[in-house]
Structure formats: structure tokens, C-alpha cells
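Give me the fold.
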Amino acid sequence: MKRIILSGCGGYMGHVITDCVKERQDCKIVAGIDLRTDLDFDYPVFSKPSDVSVEADVIIDFSHPSVLSPLLQFAKEKNLPVVLCTTGYSKEQVAQLKEASAEIPVFYSRNMSTGINLLIELAKKAAQVLGDQFDIEIIEKHHNQKIDAPSGTALMIADAISDAEDREMHYVYDRHSQRKKRDKNEIGLHAVRGGTIVGEHEVIFAGHHEVITISHSAQTKEVFAVGSINAAVYLVGKAAGLYDMSNMIADEADVQ
């Protein structure tokens, strides 16, 4: 059974992960890290990484970008793999976590849903097969409290498709400011904000008299919790390096 330290256990996702782990037989949470240490969990909670005195196999972080440096330092000192689910890292922090991956296994993804990452792999394959005969558009929908647009996940999808293409792609955000025909090297990105939509992403490949659509809809944020737990279990025992969902999906496909 894999032993998990949960950083950010007091937040919404921390509570969801705690509940999800209770239903599993392959892992358990042995300690939490949070500014609040009086939380009612069945594991001890420490105010900062350096205070943790419990043996563990892996760390999951769903907290705040400011925690990254002390968390990576602790992980390196203890030689612990770390799954980084926190968003909003600066370029310098991304460089920092990549540097840490030379010493320990680091799992980093801007979206921890296994389903959305499978969508990305399928979209990459579609882009390679369909080539420049199909126009590519990405539509993402989120709740009315989301600030950034397009979503980080939409950009993640676009980046993956762009990398898979053998031509240089550029992004067009909506189309209200342009009055011209679409060119073949565009990837269109469109954002919808409303209600309590957790997250929906649709990739459209529009060709001559046919349209191929790949879509994913998250009904609850639990999908991100499950993804992070699966990543933690997957990362234990791995060699130092930078991992993401594509690695886990590929390895699981090989096992099948």
C-alpha cells in the first residue's frame, strides 16, 4: 500500500482526495500539510513540509504556488516522488520543478483528469492522420467564476496538437476582431463561461463534407482527484525524471 503525504489537505481538492483515498485499497494518506493544523482528519497535519515526521512513499500537492520551493526541497531531502497538481506556476517555478526532476521523480500536468489527457493523445493522433485537409477548432466551457480564458487545458490541447503537426501552427482567439478567411495553419480557441459548468473541452476537425469531434466533459472535480491519486501510485518506484499523464497513459496501454 502506497503511503501519501497530501499537501493542501485543507482545501477543497484536499478534502475530495481524502475522501477518494478512503475508498481505495492501494494507498492511504499518512500525513497532511496545511496552514491549518486543527483539521479533523484521521492523519496528522503539519504546517510546513519541513515539519513532517511521518514516513511516506509519495507526495501529492494541491495547494499554492508559494509552497513549491519548500516542498521540492523536502522531497529531495527525503528522496520522495512528488505529484504537482497546483496551477499558476511562473516560468521560473516550472524551470525549478524541471530541475528537481533530475534528482527525484516529478509528475506535473496542468490537468489531472485521465480522460482529458486521453483526449489529448487522440487529438494528436487525429492531427497527424488528417494533416492540413482539416481545420482545427477548440471550444472550452467553464463555470462563471473562472477568471482565465482560454483555459490552461485548452492551451494544453492546442500545444499538443501543434507539436504533433509537421507545420507551424498559430492560435486565433475568437474571431470578432478579424474579417478574413481562415488559413490552414490556424488553431481556433473559444471560451464559454456560465453557470456551474465544471469543465468541457471539444476539439473539432472540420474537413470537406465531414467533421470529426473529440470531446470530454467533467461532471465533478472528483475526476481531478482520482487522476492525482492514480499518478501518485504510478510514480512510486520510478526513476528520477519529469513525468506527465501521457507517460502514465502510454504505460497503462502497454500493460493492456
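The chain has seven helices and twelve strands.
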